[in-house]
Design a protein that fits this description.
The complex is a heterotrimer of chains A (252), B (218) and C (225).
Chain A: E1 13-23, E2 26-37, E3 41-45, H1 52-59, E4 67-72, E5 75-76, H2 77-80, E6 88-91, H3 103-113, H4 119-130, H5 145-157, E7 163-167, H6 175-190, E8 194-199, E9 211-216, E10 219-225, H7 230-239
Parallel strand pairs in A: 3-8, 3-9, 6-7, 7-8
Antiparallel strand pairs in A: 1-2, 1-4, 4-5, 9-10
Helix pairs in contact in A: 3-4, 4-5
Chain B: H1 5-25, H2 39-66, H3 69-101, H4 109-130, H5 135-158, H6 175-215
Helix pairs in contact in B: 1-6, 2-3, 2-5, 2-6, 3-4, 3-6, 4-5
Chain C: H1 2-20, H2 22-42, H3 53-77, H4 81-87, H5 92-121, H6 130-154, H7 161-172, H8 174-188, H9 194-223
Helix pairs in contact in C: 1-5, 2-3, 2-5, 3-5, 3-6, 3-8, 5-6, 5-9, 6-7, 6-8, 6-9, 8-9
Classes of the chains: A alpha/beta (252), B mainly alpha (218), C mainly alpha (225).
Amino acid sequence: MNTGEARPAAFDVLTVEDVSRHFGRRRAVSRVTFSAPQGTIVGLLGPNGAGKSTMLSMLATLIQPSAGRILYGARDAVSHGPGLRGLIGVLGHDLFLYPELTARENLEFFGGLYALADPKAAATAALERAGLLDRGDDPVSSFSRGMRQRVALERALIHRPRLLLLDEPFTGLDDASAAGLVARLRTIADDGTMLVVATHDLDLVDGLFDRAVFLRDGRMVAEEDRPSALRATYRDVMTRPQQAGPTNRAGT
Amino acid sequence: MPKWFVPAAVVCAVMMAVAPVLIANAPYESTMGLVQKIFYVHLPSAWVFLTAAIVCGIASARFLFGADPRQDRLAWAAAELVVVFGIITLVTGPLWARKAWGVWWQWDVRLTSSLMGWMVSVAYLLLRQFGGPGSDKLAAGLALFGMANVPFIYISVNYWRTIHPTTSVVPTLPTSFGLPLWFSAVAFMLLFVLLLKMRVRLEEQRARLDSLYLSADA
Amino acid sequence: MFARVVWLVLRKDLMVEVRSLEIAYTTLFFAVSCVLVFAFALVREGRAPEDGAAGILWISIAFSGTLALGRAFERERQSETLRALLLAPAPRPAVYVGKLLGIVALLAAGEVVLVPLVALLFQAPLFDRPVWLATILLTGTIGFSAVGTLFAAMLVRARSRDVLLPVLLYPITVPVIIAGVRATTTLLQPELEVEVLRFWLALLVCFDVVFVTLALWTFEPLMTD
């Protein structure tokens, strides 16, 4: 079984089966189902409060679903054990960086925490990929939002996770940075990683997603493969009257 | 409510009504006089206080490591009763002590341990009330720590002298003291069980309501 | 793996603290003000009571410790870095131990200033038996920090966390205060009663062992949702 040292068997598909989560009386996520095979980018789209962050927290194994299952490959989080967390990378809305430390120190710290063989080398490589090698020894508090985002993304990727979860990654980015991030995400997916991106910045992500899951009040109201014209679909789906019952699937 | 509840409530009410008669007819204790009668309320409520604390502690441990919501409801109800019966004990005690020994309060073993245990249960309730979501688990952790704490307080205070009478008072009492005491004790215990059941049931109903609400349009 | 994570977390905490020294300065100043307030409150006929030294020392440690704990975990709350720590495959008890050692280091630094100050203001011969004193302070600080680190960590995502931390912490750390004060008072007597001192120290060590174990045991279930 897992000692935490050996990496558990990598999984090649993420399956979310009928997952719900409630807090007392408040339904945060209600019966969501989708799957993400290797190399796909899934978008979780919806207004604020739709349940996107809760869904991501469940995918990250921080919160357990109240009902339903999340399967990483063939097994759920509990049977994988704590080693599973070593296969998941998270870019949170709050970036998970220590502002007092330099970019390099942040990366080295998390590299060590994820049991990398050589955290220092990994940190340098990460800084290079982020294009911030010259700013590597400046404290993160001195960075702009875009720069912090790049460091945070590298932090999430430093242990080469199978599954990358991103929560509102386009917040506060200018157009050039956003376009750069979109290109970067595509490259990461092409490498074989599964990505789940929660966002409400629809204009920026047109053409990025292989699958789009639309959430409203915790419920999945639509699912589209290879969606195009996201904003139009979104408006259409969100203004449809709420119906209790099976979700609608607009298919390929 | 389960079938035994109403008959038990009736029995309890009757016992509570009869108890003062028994207490009044018990012989005067020569040195302490009339005030000593408060002992028949103080000691049983102290026992209930202790029982409730143990119930809360065990239920909290089971909830923290087993995630069974019934244990959580039980722990919360027990904590409330710890506070209630703790207040009764901590008020009747000084009233008795003042008359019997001339001091309102003494920092001896039992008093200090009881007071600190009571404080932890008040903290438990504050945490549940004001802690926001997730505070059920946190409160269970607090209860565990509180339970682990009591032996330390007991031992540390016991290292000093104590003026609290030892429990050996009870077995050596003549039956005319004994009967009202045990009668009172049974009545209080019954009251405790009834209150606990009622409170747990309230939480059960609330939980059922929540799940009905949630499944209303799944 | 466990030791490595402990070391990484501790080193990171010390690095972060050294950069700004915010917690160190503010906690230290608070502790000093605390002692001064006590001094002014208890001064009689221009002289402070000599017996008060032990109590005042430990109360100041407790108060400033609570403040330091609150601030340290508030820092983890910004940027949600505590969540990042929980997301790593690192064993969670190791994260707890790393944070605990950081807090103990912080409080110890505060005591380095507090003890001479109390000795000075209250004419207490605290430095007559320095090894005993250091042992008492260390075991007491570990006990207080063990409970405090756990509670502060578990309250990070609770509401009203600022006021709930002292509400929860003080009743549970009463044995530490009792034992610490009694041991220090014993230490300040002209003739040292070694058995009494040994008893209080043994109690403190037991408390430390029991509560660190309890914290390690409950850290995982308390941190997961």
